[in-house]
Amino acid sequence: MDGDPPVRVCRTYVLPEQQTAGDKTSIHEASTRRAYYAKKFDMELDRGSNLKLYEAVDQWIGVKYKYASCTKSGVDCSCLVNAIYREAYQCNHPAIPKDFTSASKSLMLMN
Q1: pTM passes above 0.85
Q2: Amino acid 66: pLDDT
Q3: Residue spans per domain, the chain
Q4: C-beta contacts of 3-9 below 8 A and 24+ residues apart
């Protein structure tokens, strides 16, 4: 995490179509990944599903909680949220939980 290049701060939700516009993933590969995550997370995923988000979440499954830590051997809640945002959307989510509300407002509106 310390050696990671700086990334932009999240301001708005990135729609899956916008996020993958430059992605060279084939339709077949995206369909295969969608099927994999639908089975793994036991849910239906359509073409608009955000595969990069599921991939980011998948990388952290099984990591134990560890207070004030930010590694794959142990992670706290705010670091986990920020790491998933960084991996899925290439941006930083606020590190302070009270700031989550304003940064996540557009996400809640999308649901």
Answers
A1: no
A2: 95
A3: 8-15+26-110
A4: 4/86, 7/86, 7/90, 7/91, 7/92, 8/90, 8/91, 8/92, 9/91, 9/92, 9/94
